[in-house]
Amino acid sequence: MKRYSAFAIAREALRYHTGWDRAWRAPEPKPHYDVIIIGGGGHGLATAYHLGKNHGITNVAILEKGWLGGGNTGRNTTIIRSNYLQDPSAALYEKSRSLYETMSQDLNYNVMFSPRGVIMLAQTQHEVRGYQRTAHANALQGVKTEFISPDRVKQLVPIINIDGPRYPVLGGLWQARGGTARHDAVAWGYARACSDMGMDVIQQCEVTAIKRDGGKVTGVSTTRGEITCGKVGIVVAGNSGHVAGLAGFRLPIESVALQALVSEPIKPCMDVVVMANTVHGYMSQSDKGEMVIGGGTDGYNNYTQRGSFHHIEETVRALVETFPMVSRLKMLRQWGGIVDITGDRSPILSKTPVDGVFINCGWGTGGFKATPGSGWAMAELMAKGRSPLTDAFGLERFREGRFIDESVAAGVAH
Amino acid sequence: MLILTCPVCGVTAEETEFHAGGEAHLTRHGPGASDADFEDYLFMRANPRGVHFERWRHVYGCGKWFHAARCTTTLQVFGTYTAQTSAPPQEILDKIADARPDWTPRTPG
């Protein structure tokens, strides 16, 4: 792999940019791999990357039925934060956030990590108490957050209306090192690094069966032939239920549509990420100048990657009171992704009833921020059989009643 | 935008008049059930890519619960039917069979 650097740009500029390689190879599948990762999104690629980097396992294939990062990796609102209430969540998400800090250097690929700060607005007394509690929990967990006053919110976000009649801003939970990153670049950077370690990133390759022998996985059938393997990692987000079905087990997961939208590009007006959970909307400004807006999920099972129009209306209507300028913006485009929601709104990183099959799913509406930490933990789980980061996130917790209840901790947008 | 017909009051309306209630025909396990059965009832879901039987409530109408058969990959609604049943009626199964000849009903569990 040729390293990207200022020197490389200068060198290529002098020879009409003829020396750039493809960022990753496009190999034919081999008949056998030690590990197969199903799903070429951010989490799957991060898992493969850390299998190689942390555990020296490089005979790995990443199988993607569509194109790299074409699912939720390319459909989220790119928010990164780790201000969770429960200890296992804070550990995992803070690990992830800290990996984002050096990701561009680690991957030699600019993921445009922008630690611009994230505010979660408290707009009811319940939220004030809830976020003060979270700030205290974060202090104990070593996650740097603070509860800030309405005046400080106004100072950080001049376009905000803090004394709206229905939803006044009563404070906010501020994480200064939260922010955003370029989501596509995260997938591409990982794919390039994986390919460089000798792993095969195989696109347009759908898994159609997971073959087992005596309760142990032996390989997979794909649209590009049969492949045998020692271990399989299922990292397919909204399609987790379907792929788990191929391996013969069920999941406590429902797949629903979540939408986001962007406005026309405008001059810089907001340099932090603002989440307003009471009114169910969140907003940031992209480097292109578009206001990036996300809201809540549709209420019913859906695999169509498009959502209901009335949810966009609800989200934007809710934001108009807090951000009056939104009412004058034209919306440019809208899209949907299929998110995998668990019973306790926390992810599953776990062994499964099939020996050698591991699953990483259930990130629901907030998986992008977890991409590197999820890969780190999943790789450790697959390589060593357990990871301190995944212990609490096992599939058996639903049977045992050990929930990690972030639906309470995080409110709605999460 | 889904358009559903409430089988109780007969009104046909857009999805904003209704509220989705999750998978239908779950076997309800209570006191005395095994941990596995109780987990199945509370958390485990079929979540199929394709034909899905689900509960809906006509919240901004008659207020009654009913069931619908719908495709999760096309959003086609095959039909709605009474909530007072533990399995989809033959008439609904026939409509699904017409639209999806390859579909076979999933065995429960």
Automatic annotation (TrEMBL), chain A:
Its EC number is 1.5.3.24. InterPro entries: FAD-dep_OxRdtase, FAD/NAD-bd_sf, Rhodanese-like_dom, SoxB. It catalyses: sarcosine + O2 + H2O = formaldehyde + glycine + H2O2; sarcosine + (6S)-5,6,7,8-tetrahydrofolate + O2 = (6R)-5,10-methylene-5,6,7,8-tetrahydrofolate + glycine + H2O2. Gene3D superfamilies: D-Amino Acid Oxidase, subunit A, domain 2, FAD/NAD(P)-binding domain. GO terms for cellular component: cytoplasm. It comes from the Bacteria. It is an enzyme of class 1 (oxidoreductase). It is found in: Cytoplasm. GO terms for molecular function: nucleotide binding; sarcosine oxidase activity. Residues 35-79 form the Rhodanese domain. Its cofactor is FAD; FMN. SUPFAM superfamilies: FAD/NAD(P)-binding domain. Keywords: Cytoplasm, FAD, Flavoprotein, FMN, Nucleotide-binding, Oxidoreductase. One of its GO terms (biological process) is tetrahydrofolate metabolic process. NCBIfam families: soxB. Belongs to the SoxB family. This is Sarcosine oxidase subunit beta. It comes from Sulfitobacter sabulilitoris. The lineage of its organism: Bacteria, Pseudomonadati, Pseudomonadota, Alphaproteobacteria, Rhodobacterales.
UniProtKB/TrEMBL annotation, chain B:
Signal peptide: none annotated. Pfam families: SoxD. One of its GO terms (biological process) is tetrahydrofolate metabolic process. InterPro entries: SoxD (IPR006279), SoxD_sf (IPR038561). GO terms for molecular function: sarcosine oxidase activity. It comes from the Bacteria. This is Sarcosine oxidase subunit delta.
